[in-house]
Amino acid sequence: MPRAITSFRIRRLLNLLSFLRKHGERGAEVEAILRQCEYNDRRALRDDIRLLRDEYRAEIAFKRTQPCRYCLKAEGDFLLSLNLNERDVIALVAGLGMTAHFLPSMEGNCKALWKKIQEILPEASVNIGRRLAGMVTVATLVSGMKPEVFDVCLDAIRSKTSVEVDYVSPYKTREMRTHILASWGVFFRSHAWYLLAGWESTVQKDADSGKPKKNIPITFRLSRVREVRPRPDVPFIRPPEAYSQEKFTASAWYVSVGDLEHDIRLRIVEPMATVVSETPWHPTQRPVRLDKDTLGLTARVADLNEVARWVLSSAPYITVEEPAELRKMVHDLAKQMMELNFVD
Questions:
Q1: Which is nearest to 318 in space by CA: 242, 265, 260, 252?
Q2: Are 217 and 166 members of one domain?
Q3: Burial track 224-239 (b if 16+ CB lie within 10 A, e otherwise)
Q4: Contact between 22 and 72 (Cβ < 8 Å)
C-alpha cells in the first residue's frame, strides 16, 4: 500500500505523469520536466520517479543519450486527486452499481473500486453513497455471457486486431459456425451485449477497380459466442472513414443496424400513445398528436422485421399505415400467433 503523501506532492506527481504521457515513446527532456512540473532540483524529480516506480508500479525508463530523458512505458496504479461533491458521489455509486449489473463478471471489481474510493472520501459522502446503494435497484434483464469473451473482444477493439469466434445463432440451422471478425465496438441493447464487427462478406468490391467500395458492420450477440480467440495474424478490416458507432447503433429500432431505407407511418392510440411519446425509440421518429387519444408517428428505419415484432408486442394499440410491406409482416405474425394460441 503506498505510504501517505501530501496533496501538493500528489498534484506534482499527476503533473509529472501527464507530462510524460504527453511526450510518448520519445520521452521528455529532464530540463523540460524541471521547468514544467514544479521541481526546484533534480533530486526531488529523482525521488518522485523512484516513488512512482516502487509504490505505484509505474514503468519509467531513463534515456542517457543527450539530452537525457525520462520515458513513461506503463503507468501502473493510478493516482487520483478528487474533489467530489454530493452529486459526484451519487453518480459514482450509481455508475458502479449499474456496471456490476450490466457486466456481472465485473461485480468484484466494482466493489473493490468503491472500497478504495471510500477510503479517501469524507464520512458524510460515504454514508450518502451507502444509502443510495441500498435504495437503487436495476431491473433490466441482462443475457449471460462468458467474461473472457467480453474481455478478448475489448482487447481486440483496443489493439485493432481480428478475432475468431465460434458462434451459435438461434435462426436457420442453429449450428455452431466459426467466423473471423474485425472487432469495431460493443454496445448494449434490448437486454444483451452485441459486437459490431467487419468481415470479408461485408466488403463489397468495385467491379472495375476491385477495391473495397462499401464496408458495413454486422452484429453478433455476445451471449451466443461459445469461444473467442485472438487472430493478430489476420489483416484487420478497418471501418470506413465516415463510420460512427454512435450513429450506426442509433439506426436500429432494437438491434438490427444498417442503412435507413424504410419509411414507416404508424397510428397509435392510448395508452400506448403516451408511452411512445415519452420514449425516444429512434432518432428519426417524428411524433404528431392527432387528437387527445391518438398519436401519429413517422420514422426511417433500417429493418422492418423489428418494427413488425414491436407493433405486435404493442397490440392492439398500433395501426400500420405505411408501408404495405410492414402491414403484411404484422398481419402474418399475428396469424401465426393465432394459430399457435388457438382457443377452441
A1: 265
A2: yes
A3: bbeebebbeeeebbeb
A4: no
Claim to verify: residue 153 and residue 205 sit in the same structural domain: yes
All three cell numbers of 56, joined, read 505505484
201 and 174 in a single domain? The answer is yes
> What is the C-alpha separation between 338 and 334, in angstroms, rounded?
6
Within-domain flag for 173: yes
Taken as a whole, the chain contains a residue count of 344
Q: Measure the CA–CA gap between 237 and 206, rounded to whole angstroms.
A: 16
CATH number of 326's domain: 3.30.70
pLDDT tens, N- to C-terminus, the chain (344 residues): 455 677 788 888 888 998 998 998 889 999 999 999 889 889 999 999 999 998 888 999 999 989 999 999 888 877 666 677 778 888 888 888 889 999 988 999 998 888 888 777 777 777 887 887 778 788 888 998 999 999 999 999 999 999 999 999 888 778 899 999 999 999 998 889 999 998 865 444 444 444 444 567 888 999 999 999 999 999 998 888 878 888 888 888 888 877 888 999 999 999 999 998 888 888 899 999 999 999 999 999 989 999 999 999 999 999 999 999 999 999 999 999 999 998 87
Measure CA of the first residue to CA of the last residue in the chain; give whole Å.
Answer: 72
**Long-range contacts: 37-41, Cβ < 8 Å, 24+?**
37/12, 38/12, 39/12
Range of the domain at 126: 86-135
Amino acid at 334: A
Here the cell at position 293 is: 387519444
Element housing 100 (H / E): helix 86-102
- Please state, in angstroms and rounded to a whole number, the distance separating the CA atoms of residues 327 and 325: 5
Question: Burial code of 195-216, b = ≥16 C-beta within 10 A, e = fewer?
Answer: bbbbbeebbeeeeeeeeeeebb
